[in-house]
Amino acid sequence: MPVFIYEGRDNQKQIKRGRRLAASAEILGDQLMKEGVIPISIVPYEVSRSPWLAFKAKLFEQPISLDDLGIFARQMYTLTKTGVPIARAIKHLADGTANKTVADALYGVVDQLEAGEDMASSMESYPRVFPPVVTNMIRVGQSSGRLAESFLRINQYLELESSTLKDLKTALRYPMLVSIAMIVAIVLMNIFVIPAFANMFAHSTMQLPLPTRILIGLSNFFVHYWGRMLLVTFVISGWIYFYLKTPNGKFKWDRFLLKVPALGKMIRGTLLLRFSQTFAMTIESGIPLIQGIELVAESMNNEYAKRQIMLMRDAVEHGNSITQAAALTGMFNSLELQMLTVSEETGELAPMLEQIALYYKRETEYDLKKLSGLIEPLMIVILSGMVLVLALAIYLPIWNMGQMMRGG
Fold first, then answer.
1. Strand ranges, E, within 22-72
2. Range with the poorest average pLDDT among 57-66, 208-217, 290-299, 305-314
3. In this structure, what DSSP letter does residue 14 have?
4. CA–CA separation, 290 vs 297, rounded Å?
5. Are 154 and 134 in contact (CB under 8 A)?
6. What whole-number distance in Å separates Cα of residue 177 and Cα of residue 25?
7. With the C-alpha atoms ordered 223, 227, 228, 232, is the resulting torsion angle positive or negative?
8. How far apart are CA 254 and CA 88, in angstroms?
9. H or E stretch including 360?
């Protein structure tokens, strides 16, 4: 949505100036008139014309956390439940939001709502603030007339996502710190320690042990070619980053993550938790089945899972049952398929999906604890291996020299 700089005069003949998001200059003019400000000029503010301003705006842009969105959803649930008009409720929350990025987006949503747009479409104009899962849940709620419940479910979903993310960060904090320490130690050893150690044996006619030769060779390579290594690392990292931004790259990466031992199982559980929650909501809201599955697919943040669910949609569209369609995706095990079969036969699909969601919630929490328990011993083994190789490389030649001196 464009940004406009406006100047106007209020009821006390005071000049008012500011900058605001709006769908168009006409909409902003109407908004200012409603606020008692007579517009004098409204001109577009093109930040993109100045690379420095664009960079500065990006650099100092406040990040949007899941907790910020969760608080917004919970407050909207309360205000909507009590009958406060949507536009007024959002404007009230925007006035009280400390995060400027979120506040600007909410003001923009209010402008679009007053221009006749629906809430989901208005939120879609701000994908950096409102992810697809949020906008699609809003669309489900406004289509079924259960918008307040949609906000409640969004809050529950975001709280669960935030809790899972925090648990994951906690589980990975120790291995990340250890990995950084290992990298720093390896760099320092290759630059300072090993070259000094190699000089001790530079003029020796003794055959150095294999671990020592390997360590000295790696150090020499690192010292002489560190610039090229840094350049190659930068180029490869950049290529990987931009490739993963492409649809095909993201699809392959997301599919690979699901195959990683331990981590893949946890990611799969998180995806199926989201699938079950969102699908149950669409069914309870009375959304047509095909449209509901499409909304579920759009809520996925995993490209592989999204494509598999769209295959499920195609299978249902061609007359297959939900269980048969789910089996084609390869994402469900036999127990889950059996639960879907029973729920379809009894007509209790939504309650069963809720139970499946609770099951995956417990499984994800357990997998996070298990992942943390697996990573720590693995890091200890890697560290022990590094210390062993270093000890062998340093002490074996010293030991051999001692043996030669005693023998001589």
1. 38-44
2. 57-66
3. -
4. 11
5. yes
6. 51
7. positive
8. 40
9. helix 349-407
